[in-house]
């Protein structure tokens, strides 16, 4: 009993001493006797910075702040709610340069917005203030420091406080008032002013949110009309399909209009998506399992990044430190997972095109080759872009919802670069990697993949026509692109990968993204490996290959070793305190070769599973349950980041990130994204894929020749028919005139 009371007494004394150490800012607290009223006033000043009459804020803001404080002293419910909804500005907790602990004091967003009273004219307004450090060169007033623009994602990692203030106070009023309460820091022998950063974009009122959600411009109306027309078409086609119980044979025998309508039938498209029997005769079923696992991995990485790279977790320092351990490398160093899709893309393009070349006798249908690709990818891509550009900001609200609105505005401005698939080179928005305003950060992959697809015939056709020359050309191209990447690493001193814990490498992260990560030349080696693998699978698809067991074991061992090296190869170099400088040979070799190494590892898995050397891995990856999810992978890729961003921006409070929370959040994001992908695929992706097949069916060279012959015969028959008709008209009308001496030489010659 005595021990417990002693412990409580010590804790109370420690708390009082801690409070005393933080109160020198208020002059009245410097007196030896500290009254309870003075302590209360100090806490009020921490939550209501505009209370100071010395602040150069607007008179209206000061007047309403005084009304608010008067009501608070009388314990009026609305004022108490307003006070409880505000964060606290504790100066000594603000992050200083060189530290890892960042202070975030968020208030109650919804509680603040719901504050209103008949006794006052203002309402509650929730504003977030960020804090930065600026070196002090000479004496200057903090009031003269301008607001900072949002230029990179680290803006969201700055210390911040969410205040609940009267709606008559502006962001400028708040910034000025806060700036006078914070002081300076000494770091590395230099003085730094603590700069308050506030913007109207991060000040929210109930009225402002309502106006944003009810204001609809012409572009939004057009997009809504298009979506409505699409929905009506889908429901009409589905109703027709259900009422008349049509099937594929009936549809094929129907009129063109009925076939056109049936392309949008949700019943037909759902059946196609959920079908677990593959129509293809080629045994590449393991690709579906690889595709599903790869997209799940990418969603996991982006869920982790969505939380860790913003200020929505209290323990970001601990999360970052955990990435130094080998368990965290699967996520923190897993961005090479996208190389799996580059490999699969090159493989399937080469495999399918070579099969068509065999069927067409070497005839390469260029129009169909490029047209089908654009029609396959663009409709659902354009749908997502249109939704984000117009309707995305209307989904919700939150302390960080300006993050969503910035992305919507960026897509409105740069939509054409997305539809032309050039976003990885034409970037109207600067600092693609770290700029939160980039509307569709994931579209760099689609641009790189499309650009490699444009060039792929230069490698695929020589492989099909001239085996040795084609292989030599592909290998030479692979070496050339590796040499280009090596040159860029040397010239720009790029980091080996995206190190989140090495400060010196983080300064080069945008250069790394532009010169390597998004660069098509850096990704082409993986694509070339996919093309060579597709050619090899095409040449061996009808052959039974017997591989020595020792070679099979060696292949699997090399694949596993390569995958582990790529995933965990940089583990010893993560801590810059232990390894200040990475050996240039290690840095460049890993940065240039790890994409190809991963592609070779996955390529061996595909080859082994295709030719019966995969064992339980083959049985797992070829499971039929993967097939429906594989068809949804493209839509999942387009949608998952937007869902993650909306989820994070909607959060009212940061969370303490644990493995359990991480798993449940990831699982929820994955499931919900697949559900959204299913709806988008049924309403958009599948209908336009059906339209592509209906309007531009694949035809072999013989079919094209037959069509040309039929067209020529039809033209000839039409000419004969017209000639006979003209002669008949001539005999009936002109003949009598001719017997009387007249004639019609011109008509006779024409016929």
Automatic annotation (TrEMBL):
Classification via SMART domains: NRF (SM00703)
GO molecular function: acyltransferase activity, transferring groups other than amino-acyl groups
Domain of life where this protein originates: Eukaryota
Keyword Lipid biosynthesis: no
UniProt-listed InterPro entries: Acyl_transf_3_dom (IPR002656), Nose-resist-to-fluoxetine_N (IPR006621), O2_lipid_transport_reg (IPR052728)
One Pfam family matching this protein: Acyl_transf_3
Transmembrane segments: 219-240, 290-314, 334-353, 374-395, 471-492, 520-538, 550-571, 597-617, 629-649, 661-684
Span of domain Nose resistant-to-fluoxetine protein N-terminal: 58-205
Keywords: Membrane, Signal, Transmembrane, Transmembrane helix
Signal peptide range: 1-21
Protein name: Nose resistant-to-fluoxetine protein N-terminal domain-containing protein
Source organism (scientific name): Daphnia sinensis
